[in-house]
């Protein structure tokens, strides 16, 4: 009996580790094709309007979405996603492609929540294939230029390997409180750089990104899962934090050489209506 319990405990721990391990960035080379000039203009106006209607900032500085109030827009959101899926990505410039993939990822994530609402966490939507699958990230429910894609494909086979920009972790939203904020603006070729910079600075200077207490540093688990994108060690993470930290946090980080704790809140980033659970 003791051996059985030990084996069960080991299996549970293994499943938890596998479910939280971040995929490696592995290039899907077909998406390297790019246009030299911007002759095609993707239309992200609906996504901008959707965010304006349903995204609000809490008193704690966390952007929350009114999923319940957005339910009547499920069909319109799907139309926007269908429009994006008809886009010939190779005919977009590289800045246009960046905005395209970020908006597609975020809009598809919100659409997934709405399709399964109500849920307490995106991790409760276990539609990915595989025995140890967790959440919706490996489900191939998007088709672009005849190729089926999952959310993980967009993040780990396209965005991360092509752009090699760790600020992408502040742009892609996983519908969770612990995640960097879903930005209130649709990404475009013109505003992506400013939005990435603002999102990085915003998250790092929020307690769920990084905080120091009693000279001990606690950070988001993002910096553990994707440490390879932040210098591949804790010193690299700390240097990255310093780049965007405001004066007080930067001063606290000057004498810190290791990370004490990693944490992440998988609760749904939902704006609660008074009187509801």
Summary tags:
single chain, 277 residues, mainly alpha, three-stranded mixed sheet, 10 helices
According to DSSP, the number of beta strands is 7
Computed structural class: mainly alpha
Unreliable sequence segments:
6-19
Put simply, the count of helices is 10
What does this entry show, briefly?
The chain is built from 10 helices and 7 strands. It has 277 residues and is mainly α.
Explain what this protein looks like in three dimensions:
- It is a single chain.
- With 277 residues, the chain is mainly α.
- The protein folds into two domains: 185 residues, no CATH class; 54 residues, no CATH class.
- It has ten helices and seven strands.
- Strands 5-6-7 form a three-stranded mixed β-sheet. A two-stranded antiparallel ribbon has the order 1-2.
- It is globular and about 50 Å long.
- The N and C termini lie far apart (41 Å).
Protein topology:
Elements: H1 2-20, H2 45-54, E1 55-57, E2 63-65, H3 67-70, H4 74-85, H5 94-116, E3 142-144, E4 147-149, H6 151-163, H7 192-204, E5 210-213, E6 216-220, H8 222-225, H9 234-244, H10 247-253, E7 261-263
Parallel strand pairs: 6-7
Antiparallel strand pairs: 1-2, 3-4, 5-6
